[in-house]
Design goal:
The structure holds two protein chains of two kinds. Chain A is of the alpha/beta class. Chain A has helices at residues 23-26, 50-60, 78-90, 102-116, 190-209, 215-237, 242-262, 266-278, 282-320, 326-344, 361-369, 373-376, 383-392; strands at residues 7-10, 15-18, 37-42, 64-70, 76-77, 95-100, 127-128, 139-143, 155-159, 165-169, 177-180. The longest helix of chain A is centred in the C-terminal third of the chain and has 39 residues, at 282-320. The N and C termini of chain A lie far apart (43 Å). Chain B has helices at 22-28, 40-44, 47-55, 75-87, 99-114, 121-124, 192-212, 217-239, 244-261, 268-280, 284-299, 310-321, 327-346, 362-372, 382-392, and strands at 4-6, 11-15, 34-39, 64-69, 92-97, 140-144, 156-161, 166-171, 179-183. In chain B, the strands form two sheets. Chain B has a six-stranded parallel beta sheet, with helices on both faces. The chains are: A alpha/beta, B alpha/beta.
Chain lengths: 394, 393
């Protein structure tokens, strides 16, 4: 070990309560957090749905629903945020409770950022640690999807008035309280499961090899990768398997904690750009580019990939795989797993499948190069590299 | 079905120049009049000056300063800090020093948030409101200037009341630090003996934290990371004790191991360690480094998770090559070998008899431990404790 030059920061600002049936007990803590009149956000509200169950539980501890907002935007735009801010204020809300998929949680974090920083202009929130807390707005998130990692991250995506998407990173975006109850997520469709599992798998691998990774985040990533291996196909085959669902949620949670500390890499940047440009769901874009990005990073991440392989294939196969082949085996195994998940569900496997043409690549490349995630990618990324990766998955 | 909850929002800033971020972190928390507390040792070694330098040009200064925390954190220290804080209308605490300063700062924060007048009040207050609105928070910045004890990023704090011979044990989010800064400039070259004792004590906390947090992936990661680092870096850190990166790496492992260990609600090991620490005046980590091998030998058969400890100790390659039925035994043997190597290299005590404890003390000690223990495991009884003490003797 060299002497000097060592530095890192680590934090996990959210309190997490997880377990089957934990909702009823967890909400009892809400009044003590200063919640009385909630701005309730969800992705739809049907009788007997998970959202309805959450609403009843929250109301049962004397937290009123001051206003309700149904979110349908993948990335929230400034106009919607302004509208939400007015609704929040007019109804004298004192906290935000968000229940739903990654979109609802992203929107909840964005509005919390704006409200607690009393932000008027977008410039006052855009970027890293720009907004400063002026008002305490407690934020509680209750995910109803598997594997989503943005539940505890300190960032939110916001679309500005020109339609450009920016990441706003701030501790103000991180929820105070996160309740993960697999019984709320037991009814969902297969693509949602695949989306969650794929995203958190890719994120965990990228964070593991990130330039900013530290021992603690690496341990979290490996635990998460093992959880995904053990549970993804179980959940696809039986969405009611609460134990397996919780396993995937734990993996997503860990990916989120690590993302805030270690950031990600080229696959995150590229899939985000592809999704923004084409409108295709991020997880599909991730599925298409992930193996190619792993191959790109192989020369600098060989040791880490080799280590991570153990958590995918287990004792016997790991011991039987020659050390020099392990990194490559990880890529091949990941590629096979992703292909299997996408193919079996009739989802796109190449850029051509989502309608991309050679002439569209430039915009994706430009968008990719703007991402913060490239800073922590273990290999320095050039425009030409991104073109090459994209062409390899055309 | 495994359930877990996890709450630890302590920010860790670690390494070169960590201290330079103190003004930024103060600003983030709107803290403009912090009470700066420390002890004579940190003052003498120039660490107080380093903190002052880092604060220069950034904020107006401190609300008040107090550099007389006694060597053994006392109830009076807590009262003094609380009174000074109130008299100068401070809005946060910066605690620079060893375990004594850290414990006082944590308890003072609790007293201030609870609106407690003086320490004696805790004698009469059994129903502390642990869930009181956390937004009434008071920023607390901990700057260890000695080997950390593991308490820094935890929700625990201990104060020994010498007058009444009683160890107060606080377990509340209100003792929690806002951030811990581990900066090379606040650490000194550590003798190999001290590094060895603290490292083994931390390894004990890490293993206990690993076994008892198997269902909590975040705490498990803290423990795993700590074990992995300690097993791989403790010996080199002892051999190259002027290397600041090794030093900081071991110190941060102690903090993570403590974060996993102190979140265990009830622990016979911790209660035994506390009582022995009072009896011998040795630190918690010193006691752990002595009694843990006996403790885990006794407990291991009841902990099915123990075999998984082998992974962070030996790594994936060796773990995969070890027959799954013998992993528990290999873990014990490997740990034993490591423990013995560290002890013989550093020449530190390995038996209780070397610490001044006498066999005649066992009954009284076991009584005190059992009175303190609030767990429900029927195996953790008087006889077990005496047996453990005898074996560690």
């Amino acid at each position: 070990m060299k002497d000097g030059g060592f530095y890192y920061e680590f934090e996990n600002p959210s309190k997490v309560v997880a377990g089957a049936g934990c909702l009823s007990d967890a909400v009892k803590k809400l009044p003590a957090l200063g919640l009385h009149n909630a701005f309730f956000m969800c992705d739809g509200h049907d009788k007997d749905s998970a959202v309805d169950e959450v609403l009843k539980a929250v109301n049962s501890v004397k937290v009123r629903t001051g206003a309700m907002y149904v979110n349908s935007e993948k990335v929230v735009c400034l106009a919607s945020l302004r509208e939400m801010r007015d609704v929040y204020r007019v109804n004298n809300c004192d906290c935000i409770v968000a229940c739903g998929d990654y979109r609802v949680i992203n929107t909840a974090k964005a509005i919390r950022l704006l409200l607690s920083g009393q932000v008027v202009r977008f410039e006052d929130v855009k970027g890293i640690n720009v907004a400063k807390k002026k008002v305490e707005i407690p934020l509680v998130v209750i995910p109803t999807c598997v594997g989503i990692s943005n539940v505890v991250t300190s960032g939110a995506l916001i679309k500005d008035d020109d339609g450009d998407v920016s990441e706003c990173v701030s501790p103000l975006a991180a929820p105070d309280y996160c309740i993960i109850d697999p019984s709320l997520t037991s009814v969902f469709d297969t693509p949602t499961t695949i989306a969650g599992a794929l995203e958190s798998f890719a994120k965990n691998i990228e964070e593991f090899v990130s330039k900013q990774a530290i021992t603690i985040t690496k341990c979290m990533n490996l635990i998460a990768i093992r959880e995904i291996r053990d549970n993804v196909f179980k959940v696809v085959n039986d969405p009611m398997d609460e134990h397996a669902v919780l396993g995937l949620q734990r993996a997503g949670l860990l990916a989120g904690v690590c993302y805030s500390n270690a950031s990600a890499g080229i696959a995150h940047a590229l899939s985000g750009a592809l999704s923004n440009v084409t409108g295709t769901d991020n997880y599909i874009c991730m599925g298409i580019v992930f193996a190619a990005c792993m191959r790109y990073n192989l020369p600098v991440a060989e040791k880490d990939y080799a280590q991570a392989l153990y958590y995918i294939i287990g004792d016997d196969r790991y011991a039987a795989t020659p050390a020099q082949d392990r990194a490559r085996t990880l890529i091949e195994t990941s590629e096979k797993m992703i292909k299997e998940l996408l193919e079996e569900n009739g989802l796109p496997l190449t850029l051509s499948d989502i309608g991309m043409k050679e002439e569209d690549l430039g915009k994706v490349v430009d968008e990719t190069m703007k991402s913060y995630a490239l800073v922590t990618n273990p290999r320095i990324v050039t425009k030409e590299d991104v073109y090459e990766i994209l062409r390899s998955v055309m | 079905m495994s359930t877990f909850n996890f709450s630890n929002d302590v920010k860790i800033l670690c390494g070169d120049h960590a201290l330079d971020n103190l003004p930024f972190e103060l600003r983030t928390k709107d803290c403009t009049r912090p009470l700066f507390i420390s002890d004579e040792r940190s003052y003498r070694l120039g660490f107080v000056k380093e903190v002052r330098r880092a604060m220069d040009n950034d904020i107006a200064g401190f609300g008040a300063t107090y550099f007389r925390i006694s060597e053994k954190a006392s109830c009076k220290d807590c009262d003094d800090v609380v009174n000074l804080y109130r008299a100068h209308d401070c809005d946060g605490i910066i605690a620079l020093g060893g375990d004594n300063v850290v414990q006082v700062a944590k308890v003072a924060k609790l007293m201030l948030l609870q609106g407690v007048g003086d320490f004696v009040y805790f004698n009469h207050k059994s129903d502390m409101d642990a869930d009181k609105n956390p937004y009434d928070s008071l920023p607390l910045f901990i700057l260890p200037s000695d080997i950390p004890s593991g308490i820094e990023a935890s929700d625990r704090a201990y104060i020994f009341d010498e007058k009444n011979n009683f160890l107060y044990n606080f377990n509340s989010e209100m003792t929690r630090a806002t951030a811990v800064f581990l900066d090379v400039r606040l650490t000194d070259i550590m003798p190999a003996k001290a590094m060895a004792t603290a490292g083994l004590g931390a390894l004990a906390m890490g293993i206990k934290g690993f076994v008892d947090n198997a269902d909590n992936p975040i705490a498990l990661a803290y423990a795993t990371g700590a074990i992995h680092t300690l097993v791989n870096e403790l010996l080199p850190a002892m051999r190259h004790n002027s290397n600041s990166d090794y030093r900081i790496s071991i110190y941060s492992s102690i903090i993570y191991a403590g974060a996993a260990y102190y979140r265990i609600e009830e622990s016979l090991l911790r209660d035994m360690t506390n009582e022995l620490s009072i009896k011998t005046s040795l630190s918690h980590l010193q006691i752990l480094s002595i009694i843990f091998p006996t403790y885990y030998k006794e407990k291991v058969n009841k902990d099915r998770v123990f075999k998984s400890v082998l992974m962070p100790i030996v790594g994936e390659e060796q773990y995969a090559l070890t027959n799954s039925k013998s992993r528990e035994i290999v873990a014990i043997d490997t740990l034993k070998e490591f423990w013995n190597k560290v002890i013989s290299l550093a020449g530190i005590p390995s038996r209780l008899q070397e610490t001044g404890v006498e066999q005649g003390d066992f009954v009284k000690l076991a009584d005190a431990v059992i009175n303190r223990y609030r767990g429900t495991d029927p195996h953790n009884n008087f006889t077990t404790i005496v047996k453990l003490l005898e074996e560690a003797f």
